[in-house]
Amino acid sequence: MKIGLLGHGVVGSGVSRIIDDGKTWEVRKLEIKKILVKDESEMTDERMTLNAADILDDPEIDIVAECMGGLEPAHSFLMRALKNGKHVVTSNKKMLATYCEDLFDLARENNVTVHYEASCGGGIPWMASLDRTRRVDDIDSFRGIFNGTTNYILSRMSKEGSSFLDVLKDAQKLGYAEQDPTDDIDGYDVRYKVALSAVKAFDSVISASDIITFGIRSISADDLAWCREKGLTCKLIGKGAYHGDHISACVIPMFLKNSDVFSNIPMNFNAIESSSGTLGAAVFVGQGAGSLPTAHAVVQNVIDIWKDQDSEINPKFKKPVDNSSCEGVYYIRTEKPEAFSAVCAEKVSDSVLITKKTSLVEIQKMIHDAQDESLFIAEVDSL
After folding, report:
1. Does pTM top 0.90 for this prediction?
2. If residue 295 lies in a helix (H) or strand (E), which one and from where to where?
3. Which one of the listed residues 34, 86, 93, 193 is annotated catalytic?
């Protein structure tokens, strides 16, 4: 099985390392024929090329593994690969969440497949587990810690009482956070992964931009001190639920009971839970990012294609995101507490309040109207 590898950065170099090492008989059946790199400085292997056509138009290459990141040219390259009858494996969550409908449709037209285990959960076999569960059962909902960077930041802040900016700088030094950490700390990374989980769990294509999303950019040590005093733990949670004609989905910091399984997930680990009728709650924990864990997931998908496993692509139906039925109690710190007077149940301080049970959609509108860039919100699981 010959493979063309698009990109040789953090993930792509991990893929080539695993396949070249050939530690199992399955991996030894794989061969990387060509590797697309960005410039001459990366040309360290005779298989490397600067011309994408050497991969996309080569009839000997069966699978194109995309580890480039970004929307373009990754999207155009994969569309071309599918048109040329090649299977596709991608770790690119942002691109796939944006263009999945087009890619899936084109794959069906050309009798090939799109695999994306590595796009969500890193080395955790989350997508494969959803497929396996759905062979027996419908999945009702999922929730989880989808982002190791924010989990590392929250774990460190909670344990040490450190400031957000200090821990973020450490995360950047360790390689957990990018120099521009926007996607992580503002919740967008989790939003893409929630959208892709909905595709796999519910056969539903949803617009990532419709998912209500709150991040942790504005969190303070005082917010976490209040959380600890109440016997709670803060985690950034992404969640989705199936309602037949629509999907509810959001990303929000949550103050969880310490007995909640997610409260005990340490540092940069991910943990994701599916809920279904006969299996109940099933939780998957592991490294959610990094070169080798993510590359491991890419190679697993390549082996799936070679073995003709997990090869079907069910029709995907476009569904709206509707969070009107979602209600909760919320912790809000804001310079404009008067904007939330209609839903305030308790004033913790001049700038902190706890809401009564309120619609998430209503809270989102109030936050928009308040126009307070320093506002922090968390859903409170229990008081």
Report:
1. yes
2. helix 291-306
3. 193
